[in-house]
Design goal:
The chain has a domain of 165 residues. It has nine helices and no strands. The protein has 239 residues and is mainly α. The relative contact order is 0.20. It starts with a helix and ends with a helix. Keywords: Membrane, Transmembrane, Transmembrane helix.
Length: 239
């Protein structure tokens, strides 16, 4: 494991353990921070995930794949699975039985733990290093802040007592898999496509705040500033 991968994994763990301590207690300041984070995440989708998916499809399109959209299908599958889980959890939590038992909180938490594992695996097993790895890891870290905060809002007692540790176990599992499990390039591309679809859904539907909770200048600043810096670094460092 490279020092960068170790620091990245440690950062993800700290985020899940400390998210609601790090976020400002003032609702206005918290909304501004989450809006900024959402802007960075939205920029990350368009500046990295979609171009990376296109590049992966192009790389394997002539070798192992027969059409021009197979990896996008895996991305769509990832989006549909997480959308189904989120919808089922939201519906069940509105019922009295769901509020008492918290059953779907655990289902949702389990899926996000798997999500964390796959994201950590992709980040740690990828060939991205140095400044590029650090920059993209910051965006994913801010995405994790929003995901953790969203789960905390749904059931803060269970999240503080158990949930955050379950999410951390997902990060550690992905960390270990990234160290010891070497997938073929095609299998790694399929995992990346699957988790990209789930991440696009989480960013655009669940992370970008509702209009009444949005501080648009913060959202716009996060999105535009991150995009400009990425473009400059791509030009200067030839990423």
């Amino acid at each position: 494991m490279t020092p960068g991968a170790f620091i990245t994994g440690l950062l993800f763990i700290i985020i899940h353990l400390m998210t609601n301590t790090i976020l400002p207690r003032s609702r206005m300041k918290r909304n501004r921070w989450l809006s900024f984070s959402a802007g960075v995440a939205a920029s990350y989708v368009f500046m990295y995930i979609l171009p990376a998916l296109h590049e992966e499809q192009a790389d394997f399109g002539e070798e192992a794949l027969t059409m021009e959209s197979e990896l996008y299908v895996f991305g769509l599958i990832g989006m549909l699975i997480f959308f189904a889980i989120q919808n089922a959890a939201s519906y069940y939590q509105r019922t009295e039985e769901g509020k008492k038992e918290g059953t779907f909180f655990w289902v949702q938490l389990s899926f996000f733990s798997i999500y964390n594992m796959l994201v950590a695996y992709i980040v740690i097993s990828s060939e991205v290093e140095g400044v590029q790895a650090a920059f993209y890891s910051v965006a994913i870290g801010m995405h994790f802040v929003a995901v953790a905060h969203d789960l905390w809002l749904k059931d803060n007692q269970r999240y503080n007592r158990y949930g955050r540790f379950v999410l951390v176990l997902g990060i550690i599992a992905g960390w270990l898999f990234g160290m010891f499990l070497q997938l073929t390039p095609l299998a790694l591309a399929i995992v990346f496509a699957f988790i990209s679809g789930a991440m696009i859904l989480n960013v655009m539907r669940f992370e970008v705040p509702l209009a009444r909770n949005t501080h648009f200048p913060s959202f716009a600043f996060g999105s535009v500033s991150y995009s400009i810096v990425v473009l400059l670094l791509k030009f200067l460092l030839e990423w």
